[in-house]
Design a protein that fits this description.
The chain is mostly helical. It has one domain. Helices cover 67% and strands 0% of the residues. It has four helices and no strands. The longest helix has 29 residues, at 53-81. The two termini are 17 Å apart.
Length: 83
Protein backbone atom coordinates (compact mmCIF):
# COMPACT_ATOMS: atom_id res chain seq x y z
CA UNK A 1 0.00 0.00 0.00
CA UNK A 2 1.09 3.53 -0.67
CA UNK A 3 -0.03 6.64 1.14
CA UNK A 4 0.65 9.64 -1.14
CA UNK A 5 -1.35 12.07 1.04
CA UNK A 6 0.70 11.04 4.07
CA UNK A 7 4.01 11.10 2.19
CA UNK A 8 3.28 14.64 1.03
CA UNK A 9 3.15 15.81 4.68
CA UNK A 10 5.77 13.46 6.11
CA UNK A 11 8.10 16.12 7.51
CA UNK A 12 5.21 17.74 9.41
CA UNK A 13 4.00 14.36 10.66
CA UNK A 14 7.48 13.47 11.90
CA UNK A 15 7.74 16.83 13.66
CA UNK A 16 4.33 16.24 15.24
CA UNK A 17 5.36 12.88 16.69
CA UNK A 18 8.74 14.12 17.89
CA UNK A 19 7.02 17.07 19.57
CA UNK A 20 4.69 14.60 21.26
CA UNK A 21 7.72 12.64 22.45
CA UNK A 22 9.53 15.60 24.00
CA UNK A 23 6.32 16.80 25.68
CA UNK A 24 5.67 13.38 27.22
CA UNK A 25 9.21 12.27 27.93
CA UNK A 26 11.24 15.46 28.37
CA UNK A 27 8.84 18.03 29.85
CA UNK A 28 8.62 19.76 26.47
CA UNK A 29 12.33 20.57 26.40
CA UNK A 30 14.03 20.20 23.01
CA UNK A 31 16.78 17.58 23.08
CA UNK A 32 19.33 16.29 20.58
CA UNK A 33 17.04 13.48 19.46
CA UNK A 34 14.42 16.04 18.43
CA UNK A 35 17.01 18.19 16.65
CA UNK A 36 18.62 15.22 14.88
CA UNK A 37 15.25 14.12 13.51
CA UNK A 38 14.00 17.64 12.69
CA UNK A 39 17.06 19.01 10.91
CA UNK A 40 15.33 22.22 9.76
CA UNK A 41 13.89 23.10 13.17
CA UNK A 42 14.40 26.65 14.37
CA UNK A 43 14.28 25.47 17.99
CA UNK A 44 17.45 25.24 20.06
CA UNK A 45 18.73 22.59 22.42
CA UNK A 46 17.16 23.11 25.85
CA UNK A 47 14.39 25.38 24.54
CA UNK A 48 10.80 24.71 25.63
CA UNK A 49 8.58 23.51 22.76
CA UNK A 50 5.51 25.76 22.82
CA UNK A 51 2.32 24.33 21.35
CA UNK A 52 -0.13 27.05 20.43
CA UNK A 53 -3.60 27.08 18.85
CA UNK A 54 -2.26 27.17 15.28
CA UNK A 55 -0.04 24.17 15.96
CA UNK A 56 -3.02 22.27 17.38
CA UNK A 57 -5.07 23.12 14.28
CA UNK A 58 -2.28 21.82 12.05
CA UNK A 59 -2.08 18.68 14.18
CA UNK A 60 -5.81 18.07 13.80
CA UNK A 61 -5.63 18.56 10.01
CA UNK A 62 -2.71 16.14 9.76
CA UNK A 63 -4.52 13.52 11.82
CA UNK A 64 -7.56 13.81 9.54
CA UNK A 65 -5.31 13.43 6.47
CA UNK A 66 -3.68 10.34 7.99
CA UNK A 67 -7.04 8.79 8.88
CA UNK A 68 -8.60 9.49 5.49
CA UNK A 69 -5.54 8.19 3.65
CA UNK A 70 -5.50 4.93 5.61
CA UNK A 71 -9.26 4.51 5.15
CA UNK A 72 -8.95 5.12 1.41
CA UNK A 73 -6.24 2.49 1.06
CA UNK A 74 -8.22 -0.08 3.06
CA UNK A 75 -11.37 0.52 1.00
CA UNK A 76 -9.36 0.20 -2.23
CA UNK A 77 -7.75 -3.03 -1.03
CA UNK A 78 -11.10 -4.52 0.04
CA UNK A 79 -12.74 -3.51 -3.25
CA UNK A 80 -9.86 -4.99 -5.24
CA UNK A 81 -9.95 -8.24 -3.24
CA UNK A 82 -13.70 -8.63 -3.70
CA UNK A 83 -13.54 -8.05 -7.48
Amino acid sequence: MTFPAIEKHMSHIIELFTTRNIILHNNGIVNMTYLNINKTSKLSLGEKRVVNRDYLKLTFVLLVIIGKSINEQIVNKVNTASS
